[in-house]
């Protein structure tokens, strides 16, 4: 999902199995999404979901391309966060019609096509980033004194655990899970692909990406063992993480797609969906 310099939302699709890799415009997206601010984006199986807040913050709506409509509790995007895990999408954070939204989960079950909600007294509403990993929802928090910490939520037991402070470094760029391994793109000094080493609880360098190929800020998406780094104007670098090949200077070996000509779009989100 992208947004143009004129604040117009649009979707592009890339078939990783095509003989010629090329981003193609996917459309039209629902007309009420064209110029809506704070769009969010998720994928479950063969379904593509778009999130936004309705006028006056009454009830957030969630729609996918086939125009199915479901409703959850009142939250305001883009401050809220959602993650797909299994057959469900977990939504938390944001601003709602009451303080209930700050200490609760809204859960959409794709199979049942319905929302459920439950209170969570351990839910801390200072989440700045979230992602799904190993059957849990990982969250990074930032306090008013600018201190960061990380936690993990287990939906099966509805319990939280504290994580190593090293995990908070993932705020330096987007994250993605490829073949069960967590990766992060560090955009603080160039672009470096990092891997989470669970045994030592730290981020380790997989390799740097060649300057000029990426066009930050970027988003990540994984297809099998390949991580796609998608930047401004859909410039794309593909890295096979199983090969882990790099030049002596530490530059990762991979293929790339040039920026899309005639476009001026920033990538808001990138997801893999089965068609």
TrEMBL record:
> Do the record's keywords include Repeat?
yes
User: What UniProt keywords are attached to this protein's entry?
Assistant: Kelch repeat, Repeat
Please give the superkingdom of this protein's source.
Answer: Eukaryota
What protein am I looking at? F-box/kelch-repeat protein
- Source species, please? Platanthera zijinensis
């Amino acid at each position: 999902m992208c947004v143009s310099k004129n604040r117009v939302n649009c979707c592009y699709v890339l078939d990783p199995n095509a003989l010629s890799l090329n981003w193609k415009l996917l459309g039209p997206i629902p007309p009420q999404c064209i110029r809506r601010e704070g769009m969010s984006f998720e994928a479950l199986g063969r379904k593509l979901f778009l999130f936004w807040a309705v006028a006056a913050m009454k009830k957030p709506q969630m729609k996918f391309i086939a125009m199915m409509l479901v409703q959850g509790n009142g939250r305001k995007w883009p401050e809220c966060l959602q993650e797909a895990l299994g057959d469900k999408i977990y939504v938390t954070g944001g601003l709602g019609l009451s303080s209930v939204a700050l200490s609760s989960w809204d859960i959409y079950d794709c199979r049942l096509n319905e929302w459920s909600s439950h209170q969570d007294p351990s839910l801390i509403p200072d989440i700045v980033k979230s992602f799904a990993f190993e059957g849990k929802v990982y969250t990074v928090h930032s306090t008013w004194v600018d201190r960061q910490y990380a936690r993990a939520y287990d939906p099966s037991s509805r319990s939280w655990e504290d994580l190593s402070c090293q995990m908070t470094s993932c705020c330096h760029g987007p994250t993605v899970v490829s073949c069960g391994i967590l990766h992060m793109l560090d955009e603080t000094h160039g672009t470096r692909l990092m891997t989470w080493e669970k045994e030592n609880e730290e981020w380790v360098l997989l390799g740097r990406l060649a300057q000029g190929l990426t066009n930050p800020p970027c988003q990540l998406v994984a297809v099998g063992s390949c991580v796609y780094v998608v930047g401004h104007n859909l410039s794309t670098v593909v890295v096979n993480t199983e090969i882990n090949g790099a030049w002596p200077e530490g530059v990762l070996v991979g293929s790339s797609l040039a920026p899309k000509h005639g476009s001026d779009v920033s990538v808001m989100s990138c997801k893999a969906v089965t068609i």
